[in-house]
Each structure stands twice: as structure tokens, then as C-alpha cells.
């Protein structure tokens, strides 16, 4: 199908890989990357790029009209750890950009929206193991509050205005192409970089802090499969639970030690420990498996092999 796609926040950890995957599938010229900063060489060279601030409604509307955009993937956000330092800026970015995009869809200027939520929507009153799709949700971070509010607005725009907006609650994402952007699970990427660079890592979470995680290839495939799905099969219009692995720093470290024997990790928890402690350890993604056939492909062994192999030979970023 011929369609034009806009990625907002395309230079971040997910946006970079998502843009490249969508360009591979739909053609470079049809996938417009945008961000407030320039991205990787591969991203900048492979197709159109616009400098665009997602909180600027008029600029966004202009880009949508200029490229005759059909679908928007809104990846711009302030993540959990950074948002605790700048609460109002985080709220304004995370909510303002979502409203701009939802309103463009409501006005029929675009047809379909992808907006990511996060496991941060859960809080300390949510059950720790196998957090269900619908459950007690009392997030106590600025980021989590903005994601939960965003989910409710997505469901509202679907119900009241028929907006086709789709969403997943991403777990912590592990990737080698782009560094993470200020989240509580960033350690799970940094640990591989430090293991290869100097065989030492100081982890900002306790060794036994278990959190839901996923390798980036699975996250990109989940996103594209959800966007491809027949809308009749979708029963969740807020955001789908999405799961692959449940990992703690000690497990990742000992997995890496299979390849780098003298790798050492020191644990020095900081303010991010409190955020991590408020999130579930694992997620029940029955609804995603049931509605659109979601199935992860990467476990920890495979993730570690991919991370170490690609970080040793960082080609094709
Ligand atoms: N990475 C994860 O582990 C994870 C987990 C759960 C949810 N998410 C969600 O997925 C989305 C993308 O996350 P990410 O990890 O790629 O984040 P990131 O921080 O790596 O990237 C975000 C991008 O948005 C850009 N940006 C910031 N302000 C902007 C603005 N005003 N206008 C346009 N662009 C702006 C940044 O320059 C950056 O390139 C976010 O909504 C995030 O909350 C990510």
C-alpha cells in the first residue's frame, strides 16, 4: 500500500530503528524522519528529514500537509529519569505533542497514529509479577502519570471521535544502534558498552532489581505488527501490555561474563532505584498475543549475543 509516514522523535533509541525499518518496507522517500536534532548518518542519508518541534502545532500541521502524511508515529517524549528532574517540561512535551497529533487525526488530516506508552503506567500498588492488562494503576513518576493520562486520552479519542490510534506499553528496550535517552532501564544498554570498553560497569540499580525488558528488534516488529493489524481484531484502545523477558542486572552481568570472563560490575543504586522499585517485575501480555498474535523472538542469551557482536563491529547503524 502506498502511504506517507511521519516519525516524530526519529533520532531517539526507538525512532532511529523504527524509521530505518519503515523505510526498508515502504520506500525511503515515503518515510519522513523528524526531530529537534539531527540523527545517525544512516538515518539522515537514507531519506527525508525535517527539524520539527513536536510541541509546535502549526509547524507539525505544515509538515503533515507538505508531505501528505497518512500515518504518524509519535516517539518524542521525555523519559522517566529525566522527567523527574524537569516535571513540567516533561508533562508539556509528553501531553502537548500527543494532543497535537490526536487532534490532527480527529480533523481527518491523518488516518492513523502510533503512540507508545510504557510499563511506567504501573505503580507500587500494581501486582509485581505478571501485571495484568487491566489492573490497579497508581504511577508515582511524572513520566508514568503522563503515560497513563495519554492512554486514557487515546481511548477517549477512539471512542468519541473514531480516531485510529494504536499503542503498546514498551518494557525497557535493549539496543545497539542508538543509546537510550534518560530512562530507568538505560543500564541494560550501558552495561554492554562498558563490558566491551573497559570490562567494568557501575550499575545504578541493585543487582536483583528485576524489570520487564525486550530486545529492540522485537519492539520494532511488535510496533509494525500492531499497525498492520485489522482494526476489527483490536480490543484495547488505550495501550497493550507487551512482554518478552524479565531481567535483573546480576543476570545480564553473568550472561555477559560467559563471553568476557573478567567483566566486573559494582552496584551503586541512585534515585532511579525508587522508580524501578515502583514498577512490576513482569507483565502479562495475553491480550496482545490473543488480538494480534504477538510473540517475542529474543531471550536474554540471544540478546547478549546480538549486543556483543554488533557493538564489536558497529556497521550499518
Ligand atoms: N526506550 C525505552 O526503553 C522505552 C520504554 C518504554 C516507552 N518508551 C517510549 O517510546 C518513545 C520513544 O522512546 P526513546 O527511547 O526512543 O526515547 P529517546 O529519548 O531515545 O528519543 C526521543 C527523541 O525525541 C526527540 N525530542 C525531544 N523533544 C522533542 C520535541 N519537542 N520535538 C521533537 N522531538 C523531540 C529527542 O531529540 C529524541 O531523539 C517515548 O514515548 C518513550 O516514552 C521507550
Automatic annotation (TrEMBL):
GO BP, one annotated term: L-threonine catabolic process
InterPro entries: Epimerase_deHydtase, NAD(P)-bd_dom_sf, NAD(P)_epim/dehydratase
Domain NAD-dependent epimerase/dehydratase: 5-228
A Pfam family assignment: Epimerase
GO molecular function, one term: L-threonine 3-dehydrogenase activity
Domain of life: Bacteria
Signal sequence interval, chain numbering: none
Entry's family note: Belongs to the NAD(P)-dependent epimerase/dehydratase family.
Name of the protein this chain belongs to: NAD-dependent epimerase/dehydratase family protein
Species of provenance: Cerina litoralis
